[in-house]
């Protein structure tokens, strides 16, 4: 009975194909690992960004929210300025910003994805500076009117003071999140593009977790010895402005580390920048 034909896996052709497959997988892993520094550096960004829906709202809840003598807007409703700014900046980005910068850079996409991320980090840092200044002013007014010990008191400072920090947050989102998504999408091989997008998504999930942990640690440390702490429940006894300055310092460190990485980064050949 005739035997079944056998395949010789040791032929030069099969060995060459195996080596090619191994080398391809090596390049894929190397490309994914090349994104890790940006992933680590940018974990600070969602910590800063998380304040938009947490402490910004808590600030607003203590301020004058009257539109009519008998009507006050909900503190969270001022987030509409974040939404509007995101829509406006996103809509005008291609029509105005890209057109202007294209004339100077000569590039069709105006600025690179890393430049967008860096711009978003810088704007988020400025946002914290503005938020700290506004909060410091709010605390001064609370002290002036003797409201420090009254956690339910309405500080005579209109909530519209918070609009600039919401608008800046919207600009930061348009730059940073778009830049991050482009970077993690374009700078990996097509076969593992889902890995890149997963890295992008986990930045915000893990960043939000770090934000909660950071708040716990800072309040624990600053309330030692019977102090109220920076993040006390009574906002008029807390020092949220110190926390904002701390986040601004983290943002500046993040920006420096990001710029050091971006200067030496080589974009994947053939991929959009």
Q: Tell me the radius of gyration.
A: 25 Å
The separation of the N and C termini measures 63 Å
Major beta sheet summary:
2 strands, parallel
The mean pLDDT is 85
Notes on the structure:
This protein has 273 residues and is mainly α. The chain is 65% helix and 4% strand. The radius of gyration is 25 Å and the shape is globular. The mean pLDDT is 85.
Using brief descriptors, characterize the structure shown.
273 residues; single chain; two-stranded antiparallel ribbon; mainly alpha; two-stranded parallel sheet; 65% helix
Topology, pairings included?
Blueprint: H1 12-33, H2 36-41, H3 44-49, H4 55-61, E1 63-64, E2 66-68, E3 71-72, H5 80-105, H6 113-144, E4 155-158, H7 163-186, H8 193-222, H9 240-264
Helix pairs in contact: 5-7, 6-7, 6-9, 7-8
What's this model, at a glance?
The protein has 273 residues and is mostly helical.
């Amino acid at each position: 009975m005739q035997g079944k034909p056998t395949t010789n896996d040791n032929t030069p052709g099969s060995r060459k194909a195996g080596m090619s497959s191994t080398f391809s997988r090596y390049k894929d892993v190397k490309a994914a690992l090349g994104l890790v520094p940006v992933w680590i550096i940018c974990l600070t960004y969602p910590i800063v960004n998380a304040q938009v829906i947490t402490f910004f709202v808590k600030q607003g809840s203590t301020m004058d929210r009257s539109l009519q003598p008998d009507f006050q807007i909900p503190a969270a409703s001022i987030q509409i300025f974040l939404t509007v700014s995101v829509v406006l900046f996103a809509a005008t980005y291609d029509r105005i910003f890209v057109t202007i910068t294209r004339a100077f850079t000569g590039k069709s996409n105006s600025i690179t994805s890393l430049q967008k991320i860096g711009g978003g980090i810088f704007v988020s840092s400025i946002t914290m500076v503005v938020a700290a200044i506004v909060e410091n002013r709010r605390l001064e007014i609370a002290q002036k009117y003797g409201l420090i010990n009254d956690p339910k008191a309405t500080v005579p400072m209109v909530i519209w003071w918070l609009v600039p920090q919401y608008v800046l947050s919207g600009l930061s989102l348009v730059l940073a999140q778009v830049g991050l998504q482009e970077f993690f999408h374009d700078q990996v091989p097509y076969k593992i593009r889902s890995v890149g997008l997963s890295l992008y998504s986990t930045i915000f999930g893990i960043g939000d977790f770090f934000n909660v942990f950071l708040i716990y640690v800072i309040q624990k440390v600053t309330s030692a010895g019977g102090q109220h702490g920076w993040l006390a429940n009574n906002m008029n006894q807390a020092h949220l402005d110190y926390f904002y300055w701390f986040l601004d310092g983290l943002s500046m460190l993040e920006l420096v580390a990001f710029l050091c990485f971006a200067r030496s980064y080589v974009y994947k050949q053939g991929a959009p920048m």
